[in-house]
Amino acid sequence: MHSEKSMLFVVACALIDADRRVLIAQRPADKNMGGLWEFPGGKLEAGESPEQALIRELREELAIDTQEACLAPLTFASFSYENFHLLMPLYVCRKWQGTPQALEHQALKWVRPQKLRDYAMPPADEPLIAHLCDLL
Ligand SMILES: Nc1nc2c([nH]c(=O)n2[C@@H]2O[C@H](COP(=O)(O)OP(=O)(O)OP(=O)(O)O)[C@@H](O)[C@H]2O)c(=O)[nH]1
């Protein structure tokens, strides 16, 4: 059946540290899906490639710098929310400069992939966890 839902394209990143832990970030309480834990990232701005958008988002949200060569595509989420359909590639990144800080989130947490299910995440993210467990 034809759907009138708009497609929302969001890029996200699993930062991986030397202990094979993944960084998740808690959404602000006053936002849509507030309090849930997500992978850093966001929407593309006009003219940006997905990788450029992710590098910008990581700088804005976490105050870290990385390069395109350090972003490896892992999988993607495709999920129908009530008002839009989310298409969200998930990259992994193991190399960056700086220490992640929660500039736009309530909190940050380094978590072993097998423990990600202990954290409430947006429903679109749930299928991504198995891919991270396989990788790590
Ligand atoms: N960054 C990120 N967004 C996600 C994830 N999972 C998921 O469903 N989303 C959804 O994708 C959209 C991301 O948009 P965003 O981060 O640029 O914007 P936002 O909702 O925080 O608010 P904004 O529009 O004020 O910037 C939100 O609807 C968010 O709920 C995830 O793991 N990471």
Automatic annotation (TrEMBL):
This enzyme's EC code(s): 3.6.1.55
Domain Nudix hydrolase: 6-136
Cofactor requirement: Mg(2+)
Superkingdom of the organism of origin: Bacteria
InterPro entries in the cross-refs: Mutator_MutT (IPR003561), MutT-like (IPR047127), MutY_C (IPR029119), Nudix_hydrolase (IPR020476), NUDIX_hydrolase-like_dom_sf (IPR015797), NUDIX_hydrolase_dom (IPR000086)
UniProt family annotation: Belongs to the Nudix hydrolase family.
Record bears the keyword RNA-binding: no
Protein name: 8-oxo-dGTP diphosphatase
Reaction equation(s) it catalyzes: 8-oxo-GTP + H2O = 8-oxo-GMP + diphosphate + H(+); 8-oxo-dGTP + H2O = 8-oxo-dGMP + diphosphate + H(+)
Signal peptide: none
Originating species: Maritalea mediterranea
Keywords: DNA damage, DNA repair, DNA replication, Hydrolase, Magnesium, Metal-binding, Mutator protein
Enzyme class label: hydrolase
